[in-house]
Every structure is written in C-alpha cells, then in structure tokens.
Amino acid sequence: MKNLFICCMAVILAVNVSYGVSCFWNNGDSANNYWVNPGNWDNLPTSVDGAYFNSLMPGDALIKDGDSAVAQNVYISHNRHYSDGSPLVLRQTGGSLSIGGQLLLGVADANAYGKLIMEGGEINVGVAGGLSVFVGKTGRGIIEMSGGTINTVSNFDVGGAYSGSDGVFNMTGGVLNVGGALKAGRVAGAKGRIYISGGTVNATHLYHDYGWLPEGDGLVDVSGTGEIILVGQDKTKLENYIANGYLTANGNNNDAVIVEYQEGGEWYTSMTAVPEPATMLLLGLGGIVLGRKRS
User: Fold this and answer.
1) Which end of the chain is less packed: N or C, by CB atoms within 10 Å?
2) 226 class by beta-carbon count within 10 Å (0-12 exposed, 13-18 middle, 19+ buried)
3) Where is the Ice-binding protein C-terminal domain (predicted)?
4) Cα 183 to the center of its chain, rounded Å
5) pLDDT in tens, 242-276
6) How far apart are CA 161 and CA 213, in angstroms?
7) Nearest residue to 17 via CA among 144, 118, 125
8) Taking the model in full, what pTM does it have?
9) Which parts of the chain fold into alpha helices (H)?
10) First CA to last CA distance, the chain
11) Which pairing describes strands 256-263 and 88-92: parallel, antiparallel, or unpaired?
C-alpha cells in the first residue's frame, strides 16, 4: 500500500507546472453537464490552464466514467454562491482529474462557496513544496468523499489561508493520500472540520499548527470504519492532540485506538475509533448468525 502511495506521488511530481489561460465553466450545452464537453466552457482547459467554476447557471459540473479531465489549477467558486445560499458544485463519479498545481474551493472572498462531491474515480493534485488543496481558502469550501481516490503531493488544508475561511472535509469512503500535512483550521480566525467515518486517510503528517502561524479553529474526528495512517511514530503527538481537543474519536476524547507499527522497515501510526454500542451490537448479532450457519 505504501509503495503504491509513493509511486502516485512520484507521478504527480512530474507534471508540468507552467501556466496557460483562464478557462471558465458556463454549462452552456443543454445536452449534458460534462467537464469534457467543450460546449460547457468558454475554452476547454488543458493541462496548463486554470479551470474556474464561477457560473451561476444551474447544474453541477460532472466528471464520469471514462472521462479524463485536466487543468493546472482548479477553482471551485472564485467569488460566488447561489442566491439560496447553496454552493457551486463539481461532482466526480468516475474517470480521472489531473491537476498540476492546486485544487481550491471558496477562493477569493466571503461570497465564495464551493463544493466537490467525490464518489468515484481518481483525482491527482501536485505542486511540490506548496499547498496542494485548500478547502475554504478565503470563503467556504466542502469536500464530500464517499469513494474513489484523491492523491496530493503536498498539504491538504481544511479551513484555509485567511481569517473567516470555513472548510469541511466529510469522508465516508474511498482513499485520501496526502504527501504532506493534513490540517484543519490553518490560521487564526479560520475554521476547519475533518470528519472521517469511513475510508482511509494516508498522510505524512497531521498538524494542529505549522509552528510559524497562530492556529485556527480546527477539529479532526474519526468514527465508524474510518482510519488515519501517518508516517512515523506519532502516538504521543496524537495523544496530545486528543488532550487539547483538536483530535477526537466518536466525537469525544476517550474512544481513540492508536497503534504504532512497522511495515517494510518504516514506522507508521494508525488511529481508528472504538466501535459505538450500536455497531458493537450489530457485530455481535452478525457473529451469532455466522455461528449458526457454521453449526
């Protein structure tokens, strides 16, 4: 698993980082809302272009099975939201999205509200030594992930670069591979929430603060079948995060299961949550049923 993760990061690092033109989504083709349809853009993005989702035309942009979408940077809501308060949405159910630079949600100001719904396929985001993903950079951003894989070369920040930003990452399935640090509430005045109730997050680091920035309002919660795996022996650090309320399991500071282990000569630290009583009951009933079937 870790070798695959390293290979994914190496592939992303090779992406060209030059910049082309700004391409704006307009959902202009009434036949469909597919990213790969040139009729839905003023210019269809290439691998060196910026892809802007800032149109208030109704309908989510969609990447589906068999599609290959590319861009240098992706901006989901530069400075807009719908009049009813709902976000501008990019949905991926399959296929691939390759981003040479950054993925940014809720970008320019407090009016910006962007949402990514990740249900399947693969997203690769790569800029070496930088910030790969901002969920709520200046405004609001949400990623809802129930399947597929997201690979980032560098950091994955939820609740972002400026005071007043608000980000949520809600994971119920799939795999998130973070080549740098996972962080909620990056700066003072920013709010970030990470909820992992299913799927797996592999990250090099989990940070409460970066050291040179005042910490924001951050929370990371693991529940259900969700798991965080970090590189290194981080048990003590995670226990400290639990003690100060930054890290929880099942919404409290008593249910975390933290294990340090070696694999291929490398140390890793895993965190899961103690199953809640209802889950334990279901597991127990399942065991009884299996026992009866075997007898």
Assistant:
1) C
2) buried
3) 273-294
4) 11
5) 999 999 999 999 999 999 999 999 999 999 999 97
6) 10
7) 125
8) 0.87
9) 2-13, 235-243, 277-294
10) 37
11) unpaired
CA distance 273 to 280: 12
Phi, psi values for residue 45, rounded to 5°: -65, 140
Provide the CA 237 distance to its chain's centre, in angstroms. Answer: 22
Percentage of the chain beyond pLDDT 70 is: 84
Residues 6+ apart with CB under 8 A from 249: 221, 222, 223, 242, 255, 256, 257, 271, 272, 273, 274
Instruction: Give the strand order in the sheet containing 217-222.
Output: 61-63, 88-92, 113-118, 140-145, 166-171, 191-196, 217-222, 247-249
Instruction: Please tell me the predicted confidence (pLDDT) of residue 213.
Output: 59
Question: How, if at all, do strands 266-273 and 227-231 pair?
Answer: antiparallel
The mean pLDDT of 6-25, rounded to a whole number, is 60
Q: What is the pLDDT of residues 113-149, one digit of tens each?
A: 999 999 999 999 986 656 789 999 989 999 999 999 9
Provide mean pLDDT across the span 214-224: 89
* Both structure tokens of 227: 């798991």
